[in-house]
Amino acid sequence: MRGLMILVTNKMELDIAQILTSDVLFAHFIDETLAFHRELHFVYSYPASLHSCLHILIQPEPFHRWKTIEKKCEQNKLKLCSYTLLFYAYRSLFLYIDVCVCVLGL
Asked: How far is CA 88 from CA 49, 51, 57, 75, 96, in A?
């Protein structure tokens, strides 16, 4: 199992520079790395004291990029929430106006 981990981390170290060129590709790389790490430890009982693939993600450049992507996603999520709230606020207002128009016969 340790041999597999060494091969995987060597491959990740070789590819990380190219992966960092795309936000989408890097986000997928993060997801797959975390899933692989989780599966190794929880399904196959790989010891936490041994070599792991997570050290690739916490190197300065990938870690900074990860934080940047997380911030971008959070900002987009906040924008989406504010647009959704605005939509529902106006929707409620328009429904109220429609009810008033129907009741008053305008």
From this structure: 51, 50, 40, 20, 12
For 94, counting Cβ atoms within 10 Å of its Cβ (0-12 exposed, 13-18 middle, 19+ buried), the class is exposed
Question: For the whole prediction, is pTM greater than 0.70?
Answer: no
Residue whose pair of structure tokens reads 């399904």 in the numeric block: 43
**Percent above pLDDT 70 for the chain:** 71
Tokens, residue 46: 């790989």
Question: What residue ranges do the domains of the chain occupy?
Answer: 2-104
Task: Answer whether 36's CB lies under 8 Å from 56's CB.
Answer: no
Sign of CA dihedral 47, 51, 54, 55: positive
CB 26 within 8 A of CB 69: yes
Cα separation, 98 vs 105, whole angstroms: 10
